[in-house]
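Batch manifest, entry 17 of 40.
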Amino acid sequence: MNFIAIYQSNEKIFKFLSSIILILIMVSVIVSEWLGFKSSYLIASMAIVFYLFVSLNNLTISRKIFIILGIFLILLSFYYTEEALVLITDSLIKSSFVVAFFLSLQCLRKAAASSSGMERCGKFLAEQKTNIRYLSLTFGGHIFGVLLSFGSISLLGSLAEKGSQQELDPELRKIKRKSMLIAVQRGFIAMTCWSPLTYSIAITTSIIPGSSWNGAAFSCVISALILIFLGWIIDSRNNGKNKKQILENPPLQRDSWVAVLPLFFIFTSLLGIIFLMQNITNLNAVPVVMLVVPLYSLIWISIQNSGSSKKIYYGTKRKVLEYVKDDINDYKSELVILIMAAFIGIMASSLINILASDKLSFLESLSPILILVSIVWIMPLFGQIGMNPILSVYLIGPLIPNADILGISPNSIILALTAGWALSGISSPYTASTLLIAKLGKVSPLHAGLNWNGWFTIIGGLLLSIWIIIANEFIVK
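Output type: structure tokens
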């Protein structure tokens, strides 16, 4: 009997095992990050292997290719170095870190998705008048992205697509739909420049020694603002060139800006708690996020079920069990790609360092400005050949010379990596944000990535390159 037949005949058992393994990984990584127990990371790395084994059923071709490539790199490591087991273990540890961070963020997504206040806020932002709709949806994509990750694109993108259907003229409907969707996407990718609740900050600060979110945050926020206002300027110019005027078809009863207050409160209170806990514990932002976000989400869900103590208990328990039994199993495809992207990136960069360390030494003699600006452009170029930002960062990051050798702050490297991450996220036809926007916009991912956002990526890359040079010289320390 083959594995698929075994899986199908014991599907419930395998799902239960997957849930237990993922919770074990999450808890082990949090314990290791907070208490410094290195053995917990070893437990998590072994659990990763078991999770991949029980997840082999019904994987897409792309996921299988990633697993095959990972196995190939393992064989190469045994052939070329005696430190193969060390490399494999380190790569699995990095993968478990990504998994734990992902699962923590999904707790927040679970709480936000069931909040009626979030849906009301999203609907209000999507129904704004033409002159402020782009900025309102960009704001929504940005702030919702912190809470819902890619779920923000699904929520606001769906509302925007539905809103465009009110337009009777097919040409104007197409223009309006495109404008609203790219506003959501550009707001979302700008958020990846700075938010501690994103993979971009979590991963880059974990692989660049001496870096921190606190040290890079201000400069990264400016990067986000550059992209936000660039998008607004491009959209205003495109609307001005349209020969036809988009007429308003407002809803019968428009909500007020009071609808935004719950979103603002959740956003500020969550970031405030994270910042406060950082100052109390002296930990980096990422381990704080891993612990605070699940606890915050649990409290949020409890408030949503407020009433009698019995209602709070059973309502909250139902949501928690849904997450543990069903939700995290539904993320199998995403988790496999996250695990393998981290594993492949670390393994490949480690092997390159071992096999070609002499040839890479020239990087240390290059201008640090050249290296920083190159990072901004290399990542979106890698995105065009199918490398997602996680794989790109794990591949590029360890190859970058130490910041002390370059004579710059480690946070300047974070600024460059997150800028490149954002540009890759908006332009690559293989990223989740582009795939979602393309589906909602009824165009191909290639069209959404390059046609809709090609000039945005090029101009954004130029502006961010200039900003990184200025920030490295005068701001980032």
